[in-house]
Amino acid sequence: MNGRDIDKDNRLSFSERYGYTKVRDIIQIESVDDPLKNGLWSVLDICIWRNITPWSNPDLNAYIYSSSPLPNRIPDSLYDRLWRYYFDKPVDEIHNDWMNAKEYLKRYFFSCKWYEVYNFMEFVAKNYTDIRKSMFLYKCNEELKRNNSAYQFIGDTISRVTEPQEVEEIELALDSQDKNGPVSKYILQALEKLSNREKPDYRNSIKDSIHAIQTLAANTVGDEKGDFSVLLRKLQDKMELHPALTEAFIKLYGYTSDQKNDIRHPNGKPNPVNLEEARFFLVVCSAFINYVKVKVDANC
User: Fold this and answer.
1) Do β-strands 151-154 and 53-57 pair in parallel, antiparallel, or remain unpaired?
2) Going along 51-130, which residue ranges are E strands?
3) Which of 147, 158, 292 is nearest to 234 (CA)?
4) Number of domain units in the chain
5) Is residue 136 part of a domain?
6) 67 in Cβ contact with 124 (< 8 Å)
7) How confident is the model at residue 115, as a pLDDT?
8) How far apart are CA 108 and CA 117, in angstroms?
9) Are 264 and 207 in contact (CB under 8 A)?
10) Which helix (H) or strand (E) holds 271?
């Protein structure tokens, strides 16, 4: 490897150097990948498009489509509002054949930018007045969670629930540690278990996040046999950490051992741990790792 290759390698992040997808692509902040787009379109199809029924208006000699068969709903149907107020198209160009209309919507949906996908979904949510709307929103949020989107429907508005700074903390924690070291290993495992689309493992994701802290403390103070609270207090003395910060992480560790969920030692009972808790632990533990790294570097 020549000097130019070494320089190039040093500019790459941990995930790029060792073949892992970047965290900001796993937790989708400024992207909508194909599985997420497919999932959202399927929700639109199952909850809305399939329930649009044709009926004939003899005055227009054409089929007008609406989510309700009542004549007074036709001019203000969901598709009518999409055509006039989302696409800003003249009403005399509206597709009167529903199959053509649906194909138009599908072409747009699968060709638009990531933020336009959310624009479209939010517009549909705000203009969908059917009694099935709550199910539509619920199914959308299922897909958004399953595909690790940084966004969720809160009411009928799409809101960000994961901030870019949180993703940066995870990436920095991966980058700042020895590539083959156990701290990076635990953080990466926590991320992979949280982001698994088919079978997310939130309990073990939290377990790996807290083990990353324990391993960091053990490596920093040179004690591989101490329990978590002993190691954290030794780390506090060595790094001059504020006692309240130490106690906060000891309490988080205690949460993982609580009999109600028993994250570190499964008790065979239904596990109440969810995505939000696993993400919280991953972000907080990553931030603590980065904080300790700065303190260590300052004392070197």
Assistant:
1) unpaired
2) 53-57, 62-66
3) 292
4) 2
5) yes
6) no
7) 95
8) 9
9) yes
10) none
- Separation between Cα atoms, residue 238 and residue 241, nearest integer Å: 8
Contacts of 85 (CB under 8 A, 6+ apart): 123, 127
**pLDDT of 261:** 55
Cα(231)–Cα(258) distance, integer angstroms: 20
For residue 142 the two structure tokens come to 């299922």
CB 210 within 8 A of CB 285: yes
At 208, the amino acid letter reads D
Q: Which domain holds residue 239?
A: 163-299
Domain boundary among 107, 132, 160: 160
Per-10-residue mean pLDDT, the chain, length 300: 43 49 76 96 94 53 41 56 92 81 94 96 92 93 93 91 85 75 89 85 92 94 87 93 93 80 59 84 94 84
Tokens of 183: 């701290």
101 and 168, same domain (yes or no)? no
